[in-house]
Write a structure and sequence with these properties.
Layout: H1 2-13, E1 19-23, H2 31-42, E2 46-49, H3 52-61, E3 69-70, H4 85-94, E4 102-107, H5 109-112, H6 117-130, E5 136-141, H7 147-164, E6 169-171, H8 176-184, E7 188-191, H9 194-202, E8 206-211, H10 216-222, E9 229-231, H11 237-250, H12 262-280
Parallel strand pairs: 1-2, 2-3, 4-5, 4-7, 5-6, 7-8, 8-9
Helix pairs in contact: 4-8, 6-7, 6-11
Length: about 280
């Protein structure tokens, strides 16, 4: 929340119009922050949120007076044409030795290396499936450039390689567009985070979500794929095995998994550009 508070306070102080675009909201328990968020939104020029849950939290729980429009996360407006050519070329060079392979992406290794019963079952299930799917190449990557994250990526890739006997690639984080380009090259994806799953959806890539945040399931409910997203607290050995099995099975699909909601959701997400444009024109 602090990433919203400081810029908004600066704008209020200097009488600069500002807006909140496609944000997620709630739950929020801190009384001081709740009051501050309500004040900042009420003083904004425009506010849009990405789902009904966020709208209801702001209007009903926080009692925000401002009109709040429901759009979607702005990331859903991205298309393949938006990816810079150099970013795509950099990723293709990284994957050149496996370009004709079926690739399963394994995203955000720091969470998967927490050494809990659940994370160990997830990794063991991936390794078990790789032993019977030797034509699939696992690729581990993250969305942070920190040294600790890079080390975790290498550590998880090495563990998967050593225990499965299948070479697992470790791809370092090189930038946001490189991350988008990399996900676009996957046959299927396993992730613990929201936006990686959103990008996969945009490109018709099957995704199994092991959610660590309570907001993540909202997106999968929105797109009608509730069964592909489960929170860590709801996981057990049977469910993990089922999800990983679907992950591997989906890697063999020859067609992208777009659905009837895709074009509508993309159109609604583009509304955020209109909102930003209207603020600029003020």
């Amino acid at each position: 929340m602090f990433k919203y508070i400081l810029p908004a306070e600066f704008c209020i102080l200097h009488e600069i119009p500002y807006c909140f675009v496609g944000i997620e909201a709630g739950p929020l328990s801190n009384l001081i922050i709740r009051h501050e968020i309500r004040r900042l939104i009420d003083n904004s020029s425009i506010c849009s949120v990405r789902n009904e849950e966020s709208h209801d939290f702001l209007k009903i729980d926080l009692e925000v007076r401002k009109y709040i429009e429901i759009t979607l996360d702005p990331i859903l407006s991205i298309s393949m044409e938006d990816i810079p050519v150099k970013s795509m070329e950099r990723v293709e060079d990284r994957l050149k030795d496996i370009k004709n392979s079926r690739i399963i992406g394994i995203h955000h290794p720091p969470q998967l290396l927490q050494n809990t019963d659940i994370t160990n079952i997830i990794i063991d299930s991936i390794i078990c499936h790789l032993k019977t799917h030797s034509d699939i190449v696992p690729v581990v990557f993250s969305d942070f450039g920190f040294t600790s994250t890079h080390n975790a990526t290498n550590e998880l890739a090495a563990r998967i390689s050593n225990e499965s006997g299948i070479k697992c690639l470790s791809i370092p984080f090189e930038g946001v567009w490189e991350l988008v380009a990399l996900i676009s090259k996957m046959s299927s994806l396993l992730t613990t985070k929201l936006h990686a799953g959103m990008i996969a959806y945009l490109f018709g890539i099957y995704c199994e979500s092991f959610a660590i945040h309570i907001k993540t399931p909202r997106f999968y409910k929105l797109i009608g794929r509730d069964d592909q997203c489960h929170h860590f607290k709801d996981l057990d050995r049977y469910l993990i095995h089922e999800k990983v099995s679907r992950l591997f099975k989906s890697a063999y699909q020859s067609e992208k998994c777009f659905d009837d909601n895709y074009k509508l959701l993309k159109k609604v997400s583009l509304r955020n550009r209109d909102i930003i444009g209207s603020l600029i024109r003020q």
